[in-house]
Design brief:
This protein is an alpha/beta fold. It contains eleven helices and 15 strands. It binds zinc ion.
Length: 345
């Protein structure tokens, strides 16, 4: 549990971009960088809009009584978006729905807290809680504690810890305790004040939004959101990607494929992942097909007696060469699937 949590905290949702120092709360450079650039708002369908910060996407629905937003992304982005929404729509944000607690999706909701309820899965709360003060520095960062005092001072920090120092330093004392490092870079993730564990509806201005928890290996507080009442939009963060290879080694596990199939079976037309390009339901079908074909191809490689390395060399998934992150994710997707299938997981 702890080691998984640390791995996730250090990695964020995906690899971090190069850090450039800045006085802002969450400099854009800290976020995953891809070919998708810019900060903009677009209309998806009827009263549902998307908003982009570089690779990151959020979705919001405008009603006569206010706005329902999914994914605050970060303090600077939320500040910008709040201003844009006030100017364009003249109604306040009434709900901010978290997809999961990771810093690069969940930071910045405090910007909306004057008018909005912050809606999140109850499993967010233990992630955001500070571990006991006695928690030691995790093994993988202990070498950074050069003076051996059990903390990482700002001058000692390196790599991601240095880049994200302010996102870890909850008590602002310029030193990271074992508890702060173990919790992760979550300083700007405000705890939800409206929590759920079961599927629920939010109705505003006569429009309905379904909040649907689907815990995944990526996040046990993972939630998808379906905008209904004629708008037909589904939002899912991180785990179902649009024309982009999914992240990690768990992508073709039986349970994971079953979860994606559940989402594919739902009723919607537009699909928005928190990253990359806008999609449709057909993109979710393609994502599911990738996982199934990956599972089948790796199964055949195992049946042919191939080692993990041989399978990584032979399972090329060439139909998906045009997808984003093909080069970066394919070897890990194959390896995770190979290990799962050979250990009967
Ligand atoms: Zn994530």
């Amino acid at each position: 549990m702890t080691s998984r949590r640390i791995a996730v905290a250090l990695a964020g949702c995906l690899a971090l971009g190069a850090f450039a120092g800045s006085a802002s709360a969450q400099p854009r450079e800290l976020y995953q960088q891809t070919a998708h650039k810019g900060r903009e708002i677009g209309n998806l369908t009827q009263n549902v809009y998307w908003a982009r910060m570089d690779d990151y996407l959020s979705v919001f629905m405008v009603t006569s009584e206010g706005i329902i937003l999914v994914e605050p992304i970060g303090t600077e982005f939320a500040t910008w978006l709040k201003g844009e929404m006030a100017q364009r729509f003249k109604v306040p944000v009434k709900y901010v729905i978290y997809s999961h607690h990771h810093w690069d999706h969940g930071s910045g909701a405090a910007v909306y807290a004057d008018t909005a309820r912050l809606v999140g899965h109850a499993n967010m709360l233990p992630h955001l809680a500070m571990p006991p003060a006695s928690t030691p520095l995790p093994q993988n960062v202990r070498a950074q504690d050069v003076n051996g005092n059990g903390q990482i001072e700002r001058s000692e920090a390196q790599g991601n810890i240095k880049a994200q120092f302010d996102l870890y330093d909850a008590d602002r004392n310029d030193a990271l305790s074992g508890a702060e490092v173990t919790r992760g870079p979550l300083v700007y993730v405000r705890a939800p004040n409206d929590v759920y564990t079961e599927r629920r509806d939010i109705t505003l201005g006569g429009k309905r939004v379904e909040v649907i928890p689907i815990p995944t290996p990526h996040a046990d507080d993972n939630t998808i959101v379906r905008f209904v009442d004629g708008t037909n939009v589904l939002f899912a963060s991180d785990w179902i990607t649009v024309r982009r290879l999914p992240f990690g080694g768990d992508v073709a596990l039986k349970e994971e494929i079953a979860r994606v199939r559940t989402v594919e079976a739902m009723d919607y037309e537009h699909f928005v992942c928190s990253h990359g390009m806008l999609g449709t339901k057909a993109d979710v079908t393609s994502n599911l097909r990738y996982r199934e074909e990956l599972r089948d191809a790796v199964s055949r490689a195992i049946a042919a007696g191939q080692t993990l390395e041989q399978a990584q060399a032979s399972v090329l998934m060439e139909a998906y060469k045009g997808w984003e992150f093909y080069d970066q994710q394919r070897p890990g997707n194959v390896a995770g699937t190979y290990r799962a299938l050979t250990s009967n997981r």
